[in-house]
């Protein structure tokens, strides 16, 4: 396999912090490589060094001669007065530079070197560069080529930058968080494009489905060491678990031996002559191995959520539009206690506007949101992160609260709580301006959760978080005793957390699907023209038959089951049947006259328990049967 890229002994420091030291790895032709590391370990800095946008303190980056390298930055930066098509020529690459050279040559009187330029333009297919640009932009649903960049959303700007990179048809493509700000449709398009492509790839992403389906090699930066796994993300998880198990065993053996050697060092200072010097040197090496810290975060984050009543919120015929763009139209929904709702849809369909209306940050054109008195919101927004950059991490958290109530008389100090979010005591003394983008996002999430909300509204919480942070957040949300609304393009995250979806289709159409994202996509492939009959009807289409009359609010509406209530209802039928069978068997046995004295006592104790359980479950079954 031909080597496209070799990284040799790369070291990078920022102030007194070493991001990575003596980093070595290589990427071969055709490999699709995913780079995984914790926030703050320098992933984006490394990619900037590889692209030439930054410099390493030590070491070197060696590319194979003649290969084209394309780089998609995490946050694209363009002059906003450019149009979409101009942006595709703005970032210098071999082809656009050659086009400029051709235009300069044609404008000169002598036109010296024109033939050489024409030959090179044929080789690079420069004549149809603009055509290729428009073709890829169209595939990414960017069709207004003369539209100024200043009028584009963040997701649209990311798509322009992506098109700009793909147009080059690079031999090696470097992507930094390519799925950030892309909607699900675009993520799946890019996933299919990269899977089919033969180009070599190096990317950093937190999207685990994306990693698993594209990458055949995983490089992990951990503990100032690089580990390479030849397999997809699922294979990496298995092999990493084995590696950590072996490492723990090695540390345990070194620790046991260290105790013996430490005793020798203390007992025999007189033995440390020339002959014992080798043993003393070996002791310090052993001490380093025994004290090695395996950074494997197994914390279970928990906080106390305040009591939440049965009334959560009711959206009463809410309408909202911006000019000709309709966000909601006579939308009605009654949110139930403990619902975990995911919101998906293309960029610009109104997902973030919906949650801002719920929170009272944006006013609807008509209708209203009626929120229960016990509801206490915790809101994590895409643009809500505001810190004094000159503050220390610990001071920013203490500004919110000195202690966090976990319930049951337990509480954590701000310092202890930050450690649950993987901020070591040393990192807590850092100034916020020194944190990476992902670390700042983690700190922001910390300040939201520590306020003990009972209703979490999370707008794109996964952007910039590393995979370890996402796993902790997933576990927290699964165990959260309250309501959750999540707007996210992270399919894996949504599958783990939510129990049903609002699908924003555009033009005011919102559909309620009883399941997670993967289940929705599977259903959509088999029945794209209609939603399931069991509760998946469009709220905007079905409310006329089931909702109270619009106006004075009089009348009754038969509520619909939530996804969890449907699961409970189905389980109750089986449980009731099993209890009835057990009851019949006990009564038959007691009437048989063949039981021993102890068996009669045991069954006589069990029978009233079965009857009580039957009464409770039958009553609950009747309650649920009243719901559609």
Molecular structure report:
- This protein folds into three domains: 234 residues, P-loop containing nucleotide triphosphate hydrolases (Rossmann fold, 3-Layer(aba) Sandwich); 234 residues, Rossmann fold; 63 residues.
- It is 43% helix and 21% strand.
- By secondary structure, it is an alpha/beta fold.
- The longest helix has 35 residues.
- About 5% of the residues have low confidence.
Notable features of this structure?
3 domains; Rossmann fold; alpha/beta; six-stranded mixed sheet; 628 residues
Q: Please give the radius of gyration in angstroms.
A: 30 Å
What top-tier CATH class of the largest domain fits best? Answer: Alpha Beta
Shape: globular
| Distance between the ends | 61 Å
Major sheet characteristics: 6 strands, mixed
CATH fold name of the largest domain:
Rossmann fold
């Amino acid at each position: 396999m031909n080597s496209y890229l070799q990284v040799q002994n790369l070291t990078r420091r920022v102030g007194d912090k070493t991001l990575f030291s003596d980093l070595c790895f290589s990427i071969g032709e055709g490999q699709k490589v995913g780079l995984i590391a914790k926030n703050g370990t320098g992933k984006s800095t490394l990619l900037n060094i590889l692209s030439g946008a930054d410099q390493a303190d030590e070491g070197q980056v060696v590319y194979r001669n003649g290969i084209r390298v394309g780089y998609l930055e995490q946050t694209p930066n363009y002059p906003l007065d450019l149009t979409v098509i101009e942006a595709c020529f703005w970032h210098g690459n071999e082809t656009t530079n050659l086009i400029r050279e051709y235009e300069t040559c044609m404008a000169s009187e002598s036109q010296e070197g024109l033939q050489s330029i024409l030959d090179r333009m044929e080789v690079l297919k420069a004549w149809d560069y603009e055509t290729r640009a428009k073709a890829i932009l169209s595939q990414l649903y960017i069709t207004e080529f003369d539209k100024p960049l200043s009028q584009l959303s963040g997701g649209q700007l990311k798509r322009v930058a992506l098109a700009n990179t793909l147009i080059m048809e690079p031999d090696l493509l470097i992507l930094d968080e390519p799925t950030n700000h892309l909607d699900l449709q675009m993520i799946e398009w890019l996933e299919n494009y990269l899977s089919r492509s033969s180009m070599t790839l190096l990317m950093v992403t937190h999207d685990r489905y994306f990693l698993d389906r594209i990458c055949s090699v995983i490089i992990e930066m951990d503990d100032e060491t690089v580990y390479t796994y030849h397999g997809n993300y699922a294979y990496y998880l298995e092999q990493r678990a084995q590696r950590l198990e072996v490492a723990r065993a090695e540390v345990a053996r070194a620790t046991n031996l260290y105790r013996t050697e430490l005793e020798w060092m203390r007992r025999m200072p007189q033995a440390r002559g020339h002959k014992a010097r080798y043993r003393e040197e070996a002791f310090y090496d052993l001490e380093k191995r025994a004290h090695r810290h395996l950074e494997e975060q197994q914390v279970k984050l928990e906080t106390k959520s305040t009591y939440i009543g049965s009334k959560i919120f009711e959206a009463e015929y809410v309408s909202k539009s911006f000019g000709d763009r309709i966000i909601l139209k006579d939308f009605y929904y009654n949110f139930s206690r403990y619902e975990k709702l995911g919101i998906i849809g293309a960029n610009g369909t109104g997902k973030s506007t919906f949650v801002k209306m719920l929170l009272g940050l944006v006013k609807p054109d008509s209708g209203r949101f009626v929120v229960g008195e016990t509801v206490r919101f915790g809101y994590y927004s895409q643009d809500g992160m505001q810190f004094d950059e000159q503050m220390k991490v610990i001071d920013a958290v203490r500004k919110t609260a000195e202690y966090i109530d976990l319930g049951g008389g337990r509480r954590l100090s701000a310092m202890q709580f930050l450690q649950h979010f993987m901020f070591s005591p040393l990192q807590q003394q850092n100034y916020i301006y020194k944190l990476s983008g992902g670390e700042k996002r983690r700190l922001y999430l910390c300040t939201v959760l520590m306020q003990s909300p009972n209703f979490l509204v999370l707008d794109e919480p996964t952007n910039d978080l590393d995979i370890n942070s996402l796993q902790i957040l997933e576990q927290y949300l699964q165990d959260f005793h309250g309501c959750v609304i999540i707007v996210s393009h992270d399919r894996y995250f949504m599958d783990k957390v939510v129990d049903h979806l609002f699908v924003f289709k555009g033009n005011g159409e919102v559909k309620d699907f009883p399941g997670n994202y993967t289940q929705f996509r599977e259903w959509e492939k088999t029945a794209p023209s209609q939603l399931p009959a069991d509760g998946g009807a469009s709220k905007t289409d079905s409310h006329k038959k089931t909702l109270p009359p619009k106006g004075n609010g009089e009348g009754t509406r038969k509520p619909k089951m939530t996804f969890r209530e449907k699961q409970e209802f189905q389980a109750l039928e089986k449980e009731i049947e099993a209890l009835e069978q057990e009851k019949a068997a006990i009564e038959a046995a007691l009437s048989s006259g063949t039981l021993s004295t102890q068996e009669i006592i045991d069954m006589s104790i069990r029978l009233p328990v079965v009857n009580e359980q039957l009464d409770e479950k039958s009553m609950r079954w009747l309650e649920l049967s009243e719901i559609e």
